[in-house]
Design brief:
Six copies of one chain form a homohexamer. Chain A is built from nine helices and ten strands. Chain A is of the alpha/beta class. Chain A folds into two domains: 132 residues, 3-Layer(aba) Sandwich (Rossmann fold), CATH 3.40.50; 105 residues, Rossmann fold, CATH 3.40.50. In chain A, the strands form two sheets. A four-stranded parallel sheet of chain A has the order 2-1-4-5, with helices on both faces. A four-stranded parallel sheet of chain A has the order 7-6-8-9, with helices on both faces. The radius of gyration of chain A is 17 Å and the shape is globular. Chains in contact: A-B, A-F, B-C, C-D, D-E, E-F. Chains A and F meet through α4 and α9 of A and α4 and α9 of F.
């Protein structure tokens, strides 16, 4: 099966890192097609970035449709453009925040999210509420690691994350930890060995959930919320959506 | 004071209709600057349209900032891009759905929304939940009037709306009606005369709320959720946001 | 237009202070008619005070009706008697707590209320829940300033309020502050200059909201919750309601 | 023990009817002291009536305190003035709506309220929400029986009530019925025999709950919400509260 | 009347202690029949213990039915098997956690639960949510007293409880305290004298509530949720349920 | 990997049917170990049945632990004993109701549950609330098919189910359907072909979710809610738990 892994920011380095993590967990028969948009911000840290990235990644969804992928993954912890993507495609679309919350909810009754910039905390709270997982989340913690540092996997970054995770255990009473950033995928193993509770990564969770839906023969419902958008005139830089 | 009235779809006819309704209610000292984006869809009827329109209207917000407007209004009933717009500007930003709900909540304890396409109903429910008005909303009713018909103000459109409003009164027990589309602004007076309960229009509500905030000297909080977005590299069709 | 500003406690000094604040923000064409009941408590700091004051202020509403005012404002942060007042009049009725919450919700996603006596905190929580703003309120803080001291605008009162506001910013992560007492209206400007976030006052917010409804031609719905009360026998000290 | 049964409206006939129902269920050692205010409305059917009656019944609470009653009961289904009464007295205060909901929640997971005037329905919904019983209530049904007819126990009233109860069983799936009016107490036995599910009356429920608290030696907490009100000047018709 | 008091764990010492507390509050005409299951765990401190104890105590319910008891009480603070018991019997069934929450909600608007093992805290939160009392509960506090120590009523246990109660008052702002363990019943009087707020015990609360329902002639609704279970084959150690 | 599939009722025919459905979806490397308890009810249709079955299936969990299975599945739509099972084992435990809800929530925003006996409807509502999926569920529909008929896969059963599913589509506006009974697994394909929306089966969903957790190297958190139960004395028919 073909799974399209969309990194919604424009950093190719980040895309490659995610593709690596995704391939490590994917089934042998799964083909991971990693991609990032050719338009938009280098990183997503505000509602403004989120809106621009969402509009840009929809081009990737359309491209995936042409390639007849079996599922799409939106690999940014704010799940930008998820509902719009589900409208555009009948292949399942999974967001990595959503995927991580689902996984955590099967293993504990109280998790904390550990994320990078504090500016993304409101979005995470909004998603928890929207999906129905608010009652399981003890806290959303931000380390304020610069995304660039995260990309370079500095040892200091690992230590900051580890400290924040221990705070989650001791202060929040967290029974599991959800890593709130796609760029943390490569530290999961190390953190899992250092901490006594499950550490959950969205990218690998999303790969397995997407594979599940394909194996089960299930696709996004095209009745109601996720019906295909009506064709209509688009102008200017969105002229390519004119149909 | 200068209030920027943004029609997030690309229909200039719709912009003019709204500007007309807005001017009719605005204070003498208010200058309405009506605008629509130069990019994006002709109408907004799905999450897909919403994401594209949101990305496009942020250009208008930036333009408004350069013109030093005192407030911005997003005049589509889905309030697309509202949070992102609040990040970009310190001048207050008001969505017309939000404005209509606020107004209704001051006049009754149970209102129904009467809107056009049924594809917009989920968005309305999501907004009611997000803003905190769900407990006051009896029902969201869609008439499935084509937006083009709405634009031409056909008599049949008025009759359909009127019927749906009466349904809201008799079936839902609605004590007030919120019109769920910017394009209905010109029928408010007629509907108000025909029905025994308040009929609330988002555009005029938004104008008065925006004027209030300017008169009170209040601007969007730049601490927390609506802080200015960090500058960062943008590429491709969003290169103009590179700062 | 004529707006009746009702101070529900019996302190004329407080009424005058409010009338002053109200006139400062009102539109040129607005005539503020300030009044306080001739019966009831000197201040409102408990559910007991609230019930008595509510019964007393309904006389003011009736008086306003006779004067054909265009809107009524209940200027005590507990919004006493609001639903009953809306039944008695068709002119819109606005409570100042309600007005302040509406205003805050247009400027931020997380506000704190700073109020005087801790005995009023439960009422504030109840109102937040009732109106649907609980999710936006980070904290309700009481300074335990005596109302009399507040009336005299002592410098020490200002300092106490300012300290509490800074606590709201630093501890609660408040993005805006709602002042939870009509008697604080004269400190808004000073606090606004000292603090980096919006400071919201209920009296001025209520004036602008009341003016909006009048300008929009909207009145309280008389279907359902706010229908006129049935006439019936009243005895004793409420004999004047006998109709 | 002495239990004060307060009928908050001014109808002495209603007071006697309730006293009769109360005595039938009370323990041998319980002394029922039935009373109604000397001020206020003949019946309570709106928020307006509720506010006036609440202010009036507080005089009864004070009188009960002087008589050293062990508990107070507020015998109107809107529980008017309950919080204020709890502040004024340390003896427990029970509202009959509250009492009926508590009783119903011990016998089923889904009840309907059958009440008289439809104008009281919003109050009932508000109480269900406030107390935390909303999830157990399938429906609030109004028969629109005139209160006077109810007082005269006409056979037609019984038939209307019975029909509405059957509707609750068949349409709502009600597993129990709460009678939403103090004036229905004398029909409980007859309805209980005619219907296959529990019929719950507030007055008798309240008597037993009040007796419980007295037997358990428990009184209203005077810390926090229900602390005694501060003494302060009262003027006009409330001068007797001046302390 | 005959009330069956079921201690769901297998400690006869605990049963006797509860029976003593129950008899002290029961009406003269009430006959308390105390019992514990002949199968199951010595104490209930986890979901695992809870499931086993629930299955075991249903035998006691059946025995009570044969003895024609008028009501059953499940005297463990997790209310194990409550819904199943209500299906099996038409006589009312009361859980002691449920009973204590009902009692507390009549005396204050904010209580804390003080319990023993921290492993029981999640169950308590779940019950608060399920019954609808979450909004009234400030905190659930665990002292981690060993149940055996509790049984022996050591002075040190009393001091630990007292300290925790004071924490509830000062830190949580608790207005009343619910004791979260049937084994604490004998300390209620002492704690009540030492603390300025109501101390609520589930066993005595449950006795009075059960007596109420019997006096009111009310039994569990057999329509809907609590209908009798269908007869069907049972095998192995549950063969005695085969009917 | 070894996955233990527990049918919590004692019908071996049902176990075999489930094992068949499970094997059809499982990965090549997955070994399905299907089992049913040697004690308990032939079917689970009430809270009473649920409690007995939960106590009985815990023996299966212990047996699975000895066999070192990698995950357990509880294959009854009420998810009986799920929390207790998670305490007993460190291997992940998945309930089929939970699994089906998770799957549905990835494909639509509004699903209906179609189940057999109406007596199981309350349990389903309780689970939806407990897991956080209530906002996505339009309706829980019961067909009142006898479980025995279901076992024999009668054509009439299929027609009844199909009719109920169409009702869900047309009346509830369901965008997907969750089959609320393990015994329906063999009709999924046929229903999926007949209906235009996704049909979701709990058993196959649970298999894929359990495989995911094993592949991700994740196990149930043993901190907090799901810590191992303390060892303690058990007597009578639960003596084998004495440790």
């Amino acid at each position: 099966m073909k799974i399209q892994l969309i990194n919604p920011n424009t950093s190719q380095a980040m895309t490659e890192k995610m593709a690596h993590a995704a391939s490590a967990i994917a089934l042998p028969e799964t083909d991971i097609i990693a991609i990032q948009p050719q338009h938009g911000p280098m990183s997503i840290e505000s509602a403004f970035d989120d809106v621009i990235a969402a509009a840009a990644l929809l081009d990737c969804i359309a491209e995936g449709n042409q390639q007849q992928v079996d599922a799409h993954i939106i690999a940014c912890f704010g799940d930008p453009g998820l509902d719009a993507a589900r409208e555009l495609s009948s292949a399942p679309v999974i967001g990595i925040a959503e995927a991580a919350f689902h996984t955590a909810s099967l293993l504990c009754r109280r998790f904390s999210v550990v994320t990078t910039l504090s500016s993304t905390v409101p979005t995470t709270h909004h998603l928890l509420e929207h999906y129905g997982f608010r009652h399981l989340c003890a806290n959303v913690r931000a380390t304020d690691i610069a995304v660039l540092d995260l990309e370079q996997c500095a040892e200091s970054v690992y230590q900051q994350l580890l400290d924040e995770c221990w705070q989650a255990v001791h202060v929040d009473g967290a029974e599991a930890i959800v890593l709130g950033c796609a760029g943390m995928a490569d530290m999961v193993t190390r953190l899992s060995e250092a901490l006594p509770i499950p550490i959950i990564d969205g990218v690998s969770s999303a790969i397995t959930l997407a594979e599940n839906l394909v194996r089960l023969g299930l696709t996004t419902s095209k009745h109601g919320h996720y019906a295909y958008p009506k064709t209509k005139p688009f102008i200017g830089r969105y002229h390519h959506w004119n149909r």
